[in-house]
C-alpha cells in the first residue's frame, strides 16, 4: 500500500463555498499522472463516495479530487430549485471552480449516475484539457426505467424516518437535495432531455461502465454513449451489478479503471 495525503479544501464559487477533498499519493511519480476529478450522483456528496476515492488514488497512483456540488454535503446551501439545464451547467459551474482552485492544466473526469452525465459535459466543454472520461451508471436520456426507479425511491423517502438517511450527509439541506433529484427528473419539461448533442463533442478516450441490473437505466444508456462519442470508447457491461458498481464490487471496478487508464 502506498501512503496517501488527504486534504480538505474550501473552494470559492459564485453560488457560495464548495467543499472538496483530495487524496494524493505520497510517492513523487504521481505528479506526472493526470489527476482524477470525481462527480457524485443525485443524492451524493464526498462522504458518500466512502473509501473509493482513496482506493482509486492508491490503485492508479494519481491524485483524486471529489467535491460536493452547490447545495450538497458540506457545500453551501442553495435557495433556488435546480434549473432543468443543471447537468450541462456543471462544467462551467462548480466543476470549473474546482479545476481552477487546484490549478489543473489537464485532468481525467469520472462521474457516477447524474455525475456521469455531468462528466460528459465537462469532457465536451474542456476537450483541450480532458485526457479521459469515465462514466459509471450514467443516464443518457430519460427512460421509463429511470422514471420508475425515481418514483419508487420517492415513495421510500416519504416513509417516516427515511429523510434522516439524507440528513446524516446533507444536514438541513436534505429536503432540498431530495427535491433537486425527484422534482427535476420527473418534470414534464425534462422528459425530452438527452446527452446526444454533448456526447458528439467528446473527443477523448472514454470508459463507459454500467451494471446490467441498474434500476435507473437499461444498457441502452451506455450503448448510446459509447456509440455517439467521437473519442475511442470502451464499453463495459457488468453482469449482476446494479446502480453502484464501485460499492457493490469495488475491487472489480477499481481494477477495471486502473487497467484502462494504464492502457490509454
From TrEMBL:
<dbReference type="Pfam" id="PF00561">
    <property type="entry name" value="Abhydrolase_1"/>
</dbReference>
<dbReference type="GO" id="GO:0016787">
    <property type="term" value="F:hydrolase activity"/>
</dbReference>
<dbReference type="InterPro" id="IPR000073">
    <property type="entry name" value="AB_hydrolase_1"/>
</dbReference>
<dbReference type="InterPro" id="IPR029058">
    <property type="entry name" value="AB_hydrolase_fold"/>
</dbReference>
<protein>
    <submittedName>
        <fullName>Alpha/beta hydrolase</fullName>
    </submittedName>
</protein>
<keyword id="KW-0378">Hydrolase</keyword>
<feature type="domain" description="AB hydrolase-1">
    <location>
        <begin position="35"/>
        <end position="152"/>
    </location>
</feature>
Amino acid at each position: 500500500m502506498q501512503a496517501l495525503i488527504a486534504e480538505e479544501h474550501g473552494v470559492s464559487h459564485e453560488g457560495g463555498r464548495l467543499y472538496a477533498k483530495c487524496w494524493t499519493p505520497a510517492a513523487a511519480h504521481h505528479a506526472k499522472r493526470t489527476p482524477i476529478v470525481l462527480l457524485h450522483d443525485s443524492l451524493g456528496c464526498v462522504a458518500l463516495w466512502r473509501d473509493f476515492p482513496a482506493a482509486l488514488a492508491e490503485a492508479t497512483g494519481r491524485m483524486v479530487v471529489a467535491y460536493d456540488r452547490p447545495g450538497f454535503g458540506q457545500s453551501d446551501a442553495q435557495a433556488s430549485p435546480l434549473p432543468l439545464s443543471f447537468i450541462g451547467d456543471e462544467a462551467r459551474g462548480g466543476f470549473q471552480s474546482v479545476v481552477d482552485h487546484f490549478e489543473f492544466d489537464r485532468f481525467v473526469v469520472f462521474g457516477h449516475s447524474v455525475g456521469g452525465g455531468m462528466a460528459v459535459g465537462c469532457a465536451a466543454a474542456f476537450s483541450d484539457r480532458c485526457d479521459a472520461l469515465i462514466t459509471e451508471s450514467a443516464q443518457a436520456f430519460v427512460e421509463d426505467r429511470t422514471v420508475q426507479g425515481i418514483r419508487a425511491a420517492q415513495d421510500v423517502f416519504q416513509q417516516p424516518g427515511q429523510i434522516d438517511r439524507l440528513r446524516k450527509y446533507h444536514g438541513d439541506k436534505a429536503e432540498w437535495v431530495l427535491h433537486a433529484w425527484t422534482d427535476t427528473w420527473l418534470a414534464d419539461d425534462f422528459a425530452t432531455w438527452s446527452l446526444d448533442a454533448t456526447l458528439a463533442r467528446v473527443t477523448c478516450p472514454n470508459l463507459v461502465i454500467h451494471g446490467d441490473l441498474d434500476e435507473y437505466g437499461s444498457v441502452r444508456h451506455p450503448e448510446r454513449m459509447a456509440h455517439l462519442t467521437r473519442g475511442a470508447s470502451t464499453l463495459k457491461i457488468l453482469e449482476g451489478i446494479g446502480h453502484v458498481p464501485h460499492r457493490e464490487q469495488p475491487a472489480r471496478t477499481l481494477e477495471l479503471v486502473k487497467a484502462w487508464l494504464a492502457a490509454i
